[in-house]
Amino acid sequence: MSIKVLVVDDSALIREVLARMLTRDGDIDVVGTATDPIDAREKIKQLNPDVVTLDIEMPNMNGLAFLEKLMRLRPTPVVMVSTLTTKGASETLLALELGAVDFVAKPSAEFAGGLDAFGANLREKIRSASRTDVRGAAVRTEAPKVAVRTAAAPEGALIAIGASTGGVEAIRAVLTGMPSDCPPVVIAQHMPPGFTARFASRLDELCTLKVVEAEDRLVLRPGHAYVARGDYHLRVERSSGQLKCRLSQDELASGHRPSVDVLFESVARAVGPMAVGAILTGMGRDGARGLKMMRDAGAYTVGQSQASALVYGMPRVAFEEGAVVEQAPLEQIAAKLANALVKMRSAA
Fold first, then answer.
1. At residue 223, does pLDDT exceed 90?
2. Which of 5, 127, 247, 318 could bond to 323 as cystine, CB 3.0-4.6 Å?
3. Could you tell me which CATH number the domain at 158-347 has?
4. Selected catalytic residue, list 128, 164, 254, 266
5. Which of 9, 50, 55, 286 is catalytic?
6. Based on the number of CB atoms within 10 Å of its own CB, is 333 exposed (0-12), middle (13-18) or buried (19 or more)?
7. Dihedral angle at the C-alpha atoms of 11, 12, 14, 18, nearest 10 degrees?
8. 158-347 and 3-139 share a CATH fold
9. Is-catalytic flag, 233?
10. What's the pLDDT tens digit per position in 47-99?
11. 237-260 as b/e: b if 16+ CB within 10 A
């Protein structure tokens, strides 16, 4: 069965390029295109697509306003096609908060050589989106959120979090549940350059923690969270008795840069049993190997449960490979991490 896609964009050229790229491998069928949200609304009713690609800037109705209506009235997996601008990044993150599954950055004019890579990335995200349960997510009753009063831990403790598709919202849910007395938090979320700074500043607005984009040699401080920079691996190293961020652009790992495996493996080596780690929603297997290293080094590790994950890929592989101590609904992960840290403090 091919995946039925509706392409929504006001540019005829973009509609044509996206349609051509999507149908290349034969497993995706572009059943229609729409020029604006009014047109899209009718086409969705007629064609019942599995996935919709959506532009933000369109005539007659902003893409975000349309997305909000669509997720309320007829939840459908949506992949945003975004511009690589500060405004584009902010609006894309808002789209993910409103229920879009994922996004791709529109290739710019000088990106001609990377069109094949863009197309492959887009097709992979469409396939992943087609397997997500956005209808279930829209009606899912949340497990009661456990109030976390403290996550104070001995000096040298660290929290590591990794995610991919659906991770923007999942990371937000975990970080907003963490109190300001927690140890430093390091985060690897699969995201291209240009979006991670905006993601960090959005989290900073919502959390009691201070959230920043990671910089090379930055000292990790309690009450702070550090988001891996797009297209850079983030590692943790211990130098002069302090834990620091290290950024590098060495080759992709597990198909990604930033890679969750790279971050988790560095945490296993530098922090060992003083770390706690969580693997959240995402497609593929990045993070399982690194989280297993963390667990083997004595760290407490938790995976997001299938019922609460938008894409139960990365947490599933981690669970099957024995990398997680336990699985938990998203709403309970902050409390699980905090409890492990408090136990660490009482054992110290």
1. yes
2. 318
3. 3.40.50.180
4. 164
5. 286
6. buried
7. 140
8. yes
9. no
10. 999 999 999 888 778 889 999 999 999 999 999 998 767 788 889 999 999 99
11. eeeeeebbbbbeeeeebbebbbbb
- Counting residues of the chain whose pLDDT is more than 90, the rounded percentage is 81
CA-nearest of 161, 193, 143 to 305 is 143
Catalytic residue among 190, 224, 233, 256: 190
CA distances from 66 to 35, 49, 90, 138 (A): 13, 16, 17, 16
Percent of the chain surpassing pLDDT 70: 95
Q: What is the pLDDT of residue 145?
A: 65
Measured CA to CA, the distance from residue 292 to residue 270 in angstroms comes to 15
pLDDT at residue 112 tops 80 = no
Q: What is the pLDDT of residue 140?
A: 52
Q: 218, 226 in Cβ contact below 8 A?
A: yes
- Of 137, 128, 127, 126, the C-alpha closest to 99 is 137
Between CA 162 and CA 167 the distance in angstroms is 8
CATH superfamily for domain 3-139: Response regulator (3.40.50.2300)
Number of residues that this document lists for the chain: 348
Residue 9 annotated to the active site: no
**Residue-level pLDDT at 142:** 56
* Residues near 117 by beta carbon (within 8 Å), at least 6 away in sequence: none
Cα 303 from Cα 279, distance rounded (Å)? 5
Residue 36 known to be catalytic: no
Mean pLDDT of 311-332: 97
pTM here is 0.93
Q: What is the mean pLDDT of the chain?
A: 92
Cβ(175)–Cβ(185) below 8 Å: yes
